[in-house]
Every structure is written in C-alpha cells, then in structure tokens.
Design a protein that fits this description.
Layout lengths: L4 H4 L1 H10 L2 H8 L25
Length: 54
C-alpha cells in the first residue's frame, strides 16, 4: 500500500475507537432491533464457477 496505512494510521484509528468505546456504542444502538445476516457475494462473481464454489 502506497500510504503504508496499516502501519501508520490504523493503530491510531483503533486506539481512538477503543477510547470512545465504539463497538459497545454500536451494539447498544441495535439493542432490541431485529437481527439480520449479511450474506456476502460469491468469491468470483464475474468468473466461471468451479468446484470450490459448489
């Protein structure tokens, strides 16, 4: 990565998220709401199907 973000910015961002307790805030904001599942698309959406995808 040109900007080297995983080694420069990411630790700073993770620390900030921990300081503001972001994960728990997100969990609390959904409390009592209906749960949902996000199904991600296939591995190779634009390629031919192969045995790994079956």
């Amino acid at each position: 990565m040109k900007a080297n973000l995983p080694y420069t910015r990411e630790p700073e961002i993770l620390k900030f998220w921990e300081e503001i307790n972001l994960y728990q805030e997100l969990r609390n904001s959904r409390k009592g709401e209906e749960k949902f599942v996000l199904h991600d698309g296939p591995h190779y959406a634009n390629g031919n199907i192969h045995i790994e995808l079956l």
